Amino acid sequence: MLSFNLSFYRNLLSLTIRDGLDVLRPLCGVPPEKCDPEHALRVLNDLLNTQNESHQVPGVGRKDERTQLPGAAWCVVPFFSGSSANAEVRLKNFREFSKRIRAQGVLLLGVEQVDSGHRGVLSRNCCDEVIRVEGCGSLWQKEALINIGVKNLPDACDKVYWSDGDVMLWDNDWLRKSNLLLEKHKLVQPFSFALNLAKPRRIRFLPSHFATIKPSYVSLAKMFRQEPFLVDLSPPFGKASSGYLWGARRSLLQNLPLYPRAIVGGGDSLFAMSLRSGSKASLFTSRPRYFGNGALRYADELFTMVNGSFAYLDGLLTHLYHADHRHRGYLERLQIFDLEDFDPDRDLCILENGLVAWSTERKKIQEAIREYRYRREMY
After folding, report:
1. In what order do the strands lie in the sheet with 310-312?
2. Cβ within 8 Å of residue 87, ≥6 positions away
3. Tens digit of each residue's pLDDT (9 = 90 or more) over 288-304
4. CA–CA dist 57, 307 (Å, integer)
5. Which residues contact 29 (CB under 8 A, 6 or more apart)?
6. How many CB atoms lie within 10 A of CB 205?
């Protein structure tokens, strides 16, 4: 039985970044000119999924006693329709994501944030249920939208997944395997390796039309398992994915909803790094003004509540292209909050509809956020 260690992932990271999809073609046993990219990705998923067993992350806590979860599993997906330059691309990606994940047996709840006066674009054709929430267009509402979705799930649901609306899992049996893991663990990240896909050569967004592969990621749960005491994700450990797709027992998210005040992004990192070390994570000490005391309390509550009971599933996830990563400004965006005295607990509030809004006026920060979101959505 094959077993891959962290060096395998490091090598694959460097190869895929340098050589694109060509590195996967030799795995398929056919000449490169005859290799279908979708087939290459399926072969890679099969190689990753060799052990087909539960992967508890060691050194961070205990495994929960088995809990019966006989109810339904739903996936909550936040979506911002908007009117930006790449809105059509994101909708096409969502439809491709929906088609694949629903074919794998997932019940899909789309939670769509719409600007005032807009009707929205999601429908029952691509979701089992749709919730629309209006307002607060310039703020990043991902976690708030997910919390709204969790509150509105049917009572029979006892397992919740939350996902970006532009990813694809290549193990068609991932849902059954992940559901079983959630009977042993409170959380699961249902993939071990993620590939960012570059801009397609054609307009049609089908897997066979992906042009190449961009920087790639090991799932954070996988990274923690390979390096039990790892707290810094800088080189040589490569890049780890803190987001894309997670699953949890519904009771966990009911007792402790996701932290909603990460208004320019970073909620995925906050969530994932809290699992390892709570408020002691370097993420919080590097930008204390952005996260605030409320985030620190959340991190410690999550760390205590989960108590190391999270796992991952071997397999491949791909992330569809929708914008150039150079315009994401992952580090620069946090500098916005140095413009004024900012405290998320004081300056932000949760509206009755569940969205985050300003409770005070911070003109410089608000204008900078609007400019940042404009640049991010335009490319």
Report:
1. 55-56, 310-312, 187-189, 245-249, 157-163, 72-80, 107-114, 129-134
2. 81, 377
3. 789 899 999 999 999 99
4. 11
5. none
6. 21
The 3-state DSSP composition of the chain as helix, strand, coil percent (nearest 5) reads: 40, 20, 40
Can you give the length of the chain in residues? Answer: 379
Domain at 6-324: CATH architecture: Alpha-Beta Complex (3.90)
DSSP state letter for 104: T
Q: Given pLDDT bands bounded at 50, 70 and 90, which one contains residue 118?
A: confident
* pLDDT tens-digit readout, 66-113: 789 999 999 999 998 866 667 888 899 999 999 999 999 999 999 999
Of 175-184, 195-204, 285-294, which gets the smallest average pLDDT? Answer: 195-204
Domain ranges within the chain, ordered by starting residue: 6-324
Closest listed residue to residue 73, CA positions, set 163, 154, 186: 154
With 0-12 / 13-18 / 19 or more C-beta atoms within 10 angstroms meaning exposed / middle / buried, residue 313 is buried
Indicate the burial class of 323 (C-beta count within 10 angstroms; 0-12, 13-18, 19 or more). middle
The answer to whether 200 touches 186, Cβ cutoff 8 Å, is: no
Q: Is the peptide bond before 236 cis (omega within 30 degrees of 0)?
A: yes
Beta-carbon contacts of 161 under 8 Å, excluding residues fewer than 6 positions away, are: 73, 74, 75, 76, 106, 178, 190, 245, 246, 247, 248
Judging by DSSP bridges, how do beta strands 167-169 and 240-241 pair with one another? unpaired
- Residue 353, Cβ neighbours under 10 Å: how many? 12
